[in-house]
Design goal:
Blueprint lengths: L1 E2 L2 H8 L6 E3 L3 H10 L7 H6 L6 E3 L5 H13 L1 H18 L4 H15 L1
Parallel strand pairs: 1-2, 2-3
Length: 114
Amino acid sequence: MVASGTAVLETALFNVPEMLVYRGHPVSIGIARAVVKIRYIGLVNLIMDSDVIKEFIQEDCNTQTIKAELDNLLNNKAYRQKMLNNFDSLDEKMGKPGASARTASLIIKYASKK
């Protein structure tokens, strides 16, 4: 079980099966849902644009849903393996280390042409 944020992405890149849980103040969540229109809040799901890990937000964040997902993660080998395979795809999609240096090089190359 991982709280939302970069920890979700880091956990996936370490190939650890997970679920995202988040409960916030109802007013804050209401404002966020009214203003931000995205399908997912977890970085793994956002990057992959699919339901790679289960997200339990607000009313979905309860003992029954968490227990059911934990049971799947621990006891359903096919379910767990599918998640791990998606983590491998995520790792490929993220690219090799050094993104900042590559980006800086591209910016310098582009700027020197002007």
